[in-house]
Amino acid sequence: CVSQMVLSKVNNVKSGWKSMFMVFTTAAYDDHKNIVLLAFEIMEKIVRDYFPYITETESTTFTDCVNCLVAFTNSRFNKDISLSAIGFLRHCAEKLAEGDLGFSRKHKKTSGNISPSLRQKAKGGKLENGDLSDREDHLYFWFPLLAGLSELSFDPRPEIRKSALQILFDTLRNHGHLFS
């Protein structure tokens, strides 16, 4: 049901991504293997084929996506799910480093049309519409991604630990200059 709803109307989900990622995160921790496998299959399709849609409306959906992928890395049913989720975390890091998040492209196109009152920072450095006011400061996005990979570096499964460390170090080496 969720699969049909998301995949058939992916361009209309908009503010519903947060709820979808909450459902998938809950499924990642489920006791039934089939639920975990199905949820990850949907998540895989979303990240691989529809990534621009999940980041085009709200800045927080990127973080929700990352947190959902981190939840799937903890899958006790299937090591391949964990390794694939870590690979998608690399994909997220690359998209973030490229500035290839939908809301950031939209912001670049419309930044000249934003009123001065909307440009003012609201509480917590966010604009009234929930977007981050300082697009140069990627820490808000990098932190959950790097923290998730760092947490996985303590995973008891050697393959998961090695993969997470490799991606963490590659990300820091290749993109560390983008944040301080």
TrEMBL record:
<dbReference type="InterPro" id="IPR016024">
    <property type="entry name" value="ARM-type_fold"/>
</dbReference>
<dbReference type="Pfam" id="PF09324">
    <property type="entry name" value="Sec7-like_HDS"/>
</dbReference>
<feature type="region of interest" description="Disordered">
    <location>
        <begin position="105"/>
        <end position="130"/>
    </location>
</feature>
<dbReference type="GO" id="GO:0005802">
    <property type="term" value="C:trans-Golgi network"/>
</dbReference>
<feature type="domain" description="Mon2 C-terminal">
    <location>
        <begin position="62"/>
        <end position="179"/>
    </location>
</feature>
<protein>
    <recommendedName>
        <fullName>Mon2/Sec7/BIG1-like HDS domain-containing protein</fullName>
    </recommendedName>
</protein>
<dbReference type="InterPro" id="IPR032817">
    <property type="entry name" value="Mon2_C"/>
</dbReference>
<feature type="domain" description="Mon2/Sec7/BIG1-like HDS">
    <location>
        <begin position="1"/>
        <end position="44"/>
    </location>
</feature>
<dbReference type="GO" id="GO:0005829">
    <property type="term" value="C:cytosol"/>
</dbReference>
<dbReference type="InterPro" id="IPR015403">
    <property type="entry name" value="Mon2/Sec7/BIG1-like_HDS"/>
</dbReference>
<dbReference type="Pfam" id="PF16206">
    <property type="entry name" value="Mon2_C"/>
</dbReference>
